[in-house]
Design a protein that fits this description.
CATH superfamily of the largest domain: P-loop containing nucleotide triphosphate hydrolases
Order of helices and strands: EHEHEHEHHHEHHHHHH
Number of domains: 2
Strand order of the largest sheet: 2-3-1-4-5
Number of strands: 5
Largest sheet: 5 strands, parallel
Helix content: 40-55%
Shape: globular
Number of helices: 12
Oligomer: single chain
Distance between the termini: 30 Å
Strand content: 5-15%
CATH architecture of the largest domain: 3-Layer(aba) Sandwich
Structural class: alpha/beta
């Protein structure tokens, strides 16, 4: 590998990934950044260029092990970077994202803590297991960070990251404002309601590129027009029931509390 030092940010989703990819990583000094749209070319880029440090970034969730295994077949001397969010906050944010993109089921159908038959499985929220995957396929110790720290003190979070990577950043060049706020409860209820009648989930149904593009535009039009109209409607027009019950999230928090405390203790910011 010719002395090349590789950092691989593997996500996960809803943990400030977009903020890092577009506002922080491009500003890091002395490192060649391979952003997410060039991820498929990352191995080729590293092999054909001569930089001292590389940073690859991509957002993985349920496909984490498959992608890490694939990348490690070429490069194992890698320092993976992963950001964790408290389990209940993480799965709630994921559910809202999936609903916004057309998922029609209830929270329990998305994450079933009792029978583990949801779209997301318990293993997908086992952070100790995810750390074990990174340790299994890469030879360097994972850099483990926490979304709570990013929200509470982004400057300290970024400083901790750059220290661990042995790089630097001019923090005055980083836009620390929030990019956008989440969609409201009633907007997401509206999307889920419309989804009962129109399948607006992102998917490929045409081989023809132009037809698929037009289909994607149609889905986007339905999705975002629904969100826009719902914002103007009365608060309780769809249902008095919350999108996610507080009790459901408390059960998730309690179930994974030991895993959360273990990770926080093991990888406490220095």
């Amino acid at each position: 590998m010719g002395g090349k030092e590789i950092f691989f940010h593997v996500g996960t989703g809803k943990t400030g990934t977009t903020f890092l990819q577009y506002r922080v990583f491009p500003k890091l000094m002395g490192i060649y950044y391979i952003q997410r749209t060039r991820y498929k070319k990352a191995i080729k880029i590293i092999g054909n260029t001569q930089f001292g440090k590389y940073l690859i970034s991509r957002e993985f969730d349920q496909q984490l092990e498959d992608e890490v295994r694939s990348f490690s077949s070429k490069y194992r001397d890698v320092a993976p970077i992963i950001v964790f969010r408290r389990h209940d906050d993480y799965i709630a944010s994921q559910y809202r994202r999936f609903v916004k993109n057309g998922f029609r089921g209830s929270f329990q159908e998305f994450f079933d803590l009792e029978n583990d038959e949801g779209l997301f499985k318990k293993i997908d929220l086992n952070y100790s297991h995810q750390i074990g995957i990174l340790e299994k396929y890469f030879t360097r110790e994972p850099i483990v960070l926490f979304y709570d720290d990013l929200r509470t003190d982004p400057v300290a979070f970024i400083s901790n990251l750059t220290n661990k990577m042995g790089t630097a950043i001019n923090i005055s060049n980083v836009n620390l404002t929030r990019k956008h706020t989440s969609y409201s409860e009633k907007q997401l209820k509206a999307i889920r309601y419309i989804g009962r009648y129109i399948n607006i989930r992102k998917r490929r149904i045409f081989r023809n590129g132009l037809l698929q593009l037009l289909f994607s535009y149609f889905l986007g039009m339905v999705r975002y027009s629904t969100l826009l109209i719902a914002a103007l409607l009365p608060e309780k027009i769809f249902s008095d029931q919350p999108l996610i019950a507080d009790q459901e999230l408390q059960q998730v928090k309690d179930y994974f509390n030991e895993d959360w405390l273990k990770c926080r203790s093991q990888f406490r910011a220095e």
